[in-house]
Design brief:
By secondary structure, the protein is an alpha+beta fold. The chain has helices at about 5-15, 40-45, 50-65, 90-110, 120-125, 155-160, 175-180, 185-190, 250-255, 265, 355-380; strands at about 15-20, 25-35, 70-75, 80-85, 130-145, 145-150, 170-175, 195-205, 205-215, 240-245, 270-275, 285-290, 295-305, 310-320, 325-335, 340-345. It folds into two domains: about 5-220, Nucleotide cyclase, GGDEF domain (Alpha-Beta Plaits), CATH 3.30.70; about 240-380, Alpha-D-Glucose-1,6-Bisphosphate, Chain A, domain 4. Strands 1, 2, 3, 4, 5, 6, 7, 8 and 9 form a nine-stranded mixed sheet that branches. Strands 10-16-15-14-13-12-11 form a seven-stranded antiparallel sheet, with helices on both faces. Strand 14 and strand 15 (about 325-335) form a beta hairpin.
């Protein structure tokens, strides 16, 4: 056995390469959501929370997965998804792209609602948005230790398509490799809410590469705005609030609500909390709370104090299926040196159900959950 063959044999002993019976490659969908304005936002925002926000946004992109895509890698401001096998229909693909875009933009709007936040001010001045590249081709899937690596010409094509001749910064781009798999009538129907336009870019070694693209801007009409419900009807804000006076100082109340270890002692239904004790107290720290038969993931986002001594402590809620991309605000207003007013405010982008009955029932349950949690928090601090 030669040196090269020996090296390949050793590598196969650690990881395996999946191959088809023909050319060592498999058909695959490649989908790359890319955050536009990422570099400028990090460099010019001036907010220490900017990197945490971008990390949250990348997580939003991953959570918006409706096509059972696999995450291959995260590359700074983009996520490379893939799915082996036949391509999704044009309708399925468009629904996936719409979900990614709407969840991304709704989360930004939730953060922007905090008018006193330096981070919100930076978002209003330095626009972040999203472009999505879709390609269908053939890839080799290599397992290298615990990592999965996609290889092949079509992986290169998908990455190159991120740099193109499309004007603007929020659109979905479909390669010819994908559009060839779909009937023209199905493509036209799937993009009936916008215009699907032809384009092409010349790449070194690849030559002229044709594609179709459609702007995502019309979807902004569907975004959640203060004072509207999921259908855009005025009069229903996407927030839930409960409030209670506490017989402790604002500083003490902040210490209690930001103490992960105390969560099971006041959060309704909580039985345990899991977190890295070496990171407790840091912004950006994630922790998990066992509630009932499930688990909810939280992440600390920011702590603000204004000139009146009012605190705002914010946490992101992840993997909460019916209320994706929600933020939990703790507004703590000092009343006296030994009393404060605590408001729990949940802001959510949308409810992941088309049933009005389900939405109403879940909002009612969530309001009860917040109310009981706040009551138990009051009882906890009264016993101090």
């Amino acid at each position: 056995m030669g040196v090269l063959e020996d090296l390949r044999a050793r590598r196969r002993a650690v990881g395996r390469v999946s191959t088809s019976a023909f050319d060592g490659q498999q058909p695959a969908l490649l989908l790359i959501p890319d955050i536009s304005g990422f570099t400028r936002f990090i460099e010019q925002s001036g907010s220490p929370q900017a990197p945490f926000l971008v990390a949250d946004l990348l997580e939003i992109l991953i959570e918006a997965n409706t096509l059972e895509l696999e995450v291959n890698e995260i590359q700074g401001d983009a996520v490379l998804f893939y799915r082996l096998g036949p391509p999704p229909t044009a309708h399925e693909l468009v629904q996936q792209c719409r979900r990614i875009y709407l969840d991304f933009q709704n989360y930004l709007r939730l953060v922007e609602q905090d008018h006193d936040s330096e981070l919100a001010a930076a978002l209003r001045a330095l626009v972040l948005t999203l472009k999505i590249v879709v390609h269908y081709g053939r890839v080799s899937v290599a397992r290298i230790r615990e990592h999965t690596k996609l290889m092949g010409r079509d992986v290169i094509v998908a990455h190159r398509l991120l740099k193109n001749n499309v004007a603007g910064s929020e659109y979905v781009l479909l390669s010819e490799g994908y559009t060839r798999t779909q009937p023209p009538a199905a493509l036209a129907a799937a993009f009936s809410w916008t215009r699907l336009l032809p384009g092409s870019t010349h790449y070194e070694y690849l030559g002229d590469t044709p594609y179709y693209y459609a702007y995502l801007s019309p979807l902004r009409l569907l975004l959640s705005t203060p004072g509207t419900d999921a259908a855009g009807t005025p009069g229903r804000s996407k927030t839930l609030k409960v409030r209670r006076a506490l017989p402790v100082s604002a500083e003490y109340a902040l210490r209690v609500v930001s103490n992960f270890r105390l969560r099971p002692r006041w959060m309704e239904g909580a039985t345990a909390v899991h977190y890295d004790v070496t990171k407790a107290g840091r912004l950006g720290t994630s922790y998990k709370v066992d509630i009932g038969n499930g688990q909810i993931d939280f992440q600390t986002v920011q702590v603000l104090e204004d000139e009146t001594g009012r605190y705002t402590y914010v946490e992101k809620i992840s993997h909460y299926r019916l209320f994706p991309n929600a933020l939990l605000f703790y507004h703590i207003e000092p009343v006296t040196a030994q009393a404060c007013l605590l408001t729990l405010e949940l802001r959510y982008g949308h409810i992941a159900s088309d049933s009005r009955l389900v939405c109403f029932g879940q909002l009612r349950r969530l309001a009860l959950f917040l109310g009981r949690s706040l009551r138990q928090l009051g009882e906890l601090v009264e016993r101090r």
